[in-house]
Amino acid sequence: MIITITSYKGGVGKTTSAIHIAAYLQRLAPTLLVDGDAIRSASKWAQRGGEGGLPFKVVSHAQMVSHIRDYQHIVIDTEGNPSDDDFKDLADNCDLLVIPAVPESVATDGLTHTLAKLRSLGNTRHKVLLTMVPPKPRTDGLQLREMLQAEGIPVFASEIPRLAAYEKAATYGVPVYSVKDDRNAARAWEVYEAAGREIVGG
Ligand SMILES: Nc1ncnc2c1ncn2[C@@H]1O[C@H](COP(=O)(O)OP(=O)(O)OP(=O)(O)O)[C@@H](O)[C@H]1O
Ligand SMILES: [Mg+2]
């Protein structure tokens, strides 16, 4: 399966989602994470963790060609604000486009643009993943979910809460389930595991 994580909006949890979706898929079959961002956030995450950090291989776009045949699942992390041509190529060349979206008005501007582009491309293989969802009593997550569903846009049932455990995971260079000093680490992993099950289950 080729899973591409993209959005016109930056800082919405693309890299964090790519890392954890890859960690989930790796448990099922050999998985490669392709770092399609010039800033190389995913590669740096892997480097910080060193041996025993991430359970899958991270390669650059240029390295991808020589590795791809050895893997069953490919997860592609991309940079924010792609060109329209790149966006079309990404959308047309994967099994599923995962679009992380932060339920705040500033973030939804980029989301609207992303969804409008997908509509104009006739793309049907995409699903929005709500990320950095603020805790109750705030209802921002639910509001965005209802808005998207009313427009017939597919949304993951699992949503990713706003938790400091993810930033710690990035700092230590590990998946969030390996973060020892955060009481929300298990929950932070469970929601990505559930999203992973949705991807594999269709
Ligand atoms: N669910 C979350 N809760 C809290 N913080 C998060 C969450 N997901 C990501 N973050 C943090 O938010 C910041 C942006 O996340 P991330 O790098 O995954 O986004 P991105 O979309 O890849 O950004 P860019 O567009 O720069 O590539 C990081 O500091 C990350 O640790
Ligand atoms: Mg990123």
Give a quick summary of the entry:
With 202 residues, the protein is of the alpha/beta class. Helices cover 46% and strands 15% of the residues.
Keywords:
6-stranded parallel sheet; 15% strand; binds magnesium ion; alpha/beta; Rossmann fold; single chain; binds adenosine-5'-triphosphate; 202 residues
Describe this structure in words.
It is a single chain. The protein has helices spanning 14-26, 41-49, 61-67, 84-92, 105-121, 140-150, 164-172, 185-201, and strands at 2-5, 31-36, 57-60, 73-78, 96-101, 126-130. With 202 residues, the protein is of the alpha/beta class. The chain has a single domain (2-195), classed as Rossmann fold (3-Layer(aba) Sandwich), CATH 3.40.50.300. Helix 5 (105-121) links the parallel strand 5 (96-101) and strand 6 (126-130). It is globular and about 45 Å long. The N and C termini lie close together (11 Å). 45% of the residues are buried. The structure holds adenosine-5'-triphosphate and magnesium ion (MG).
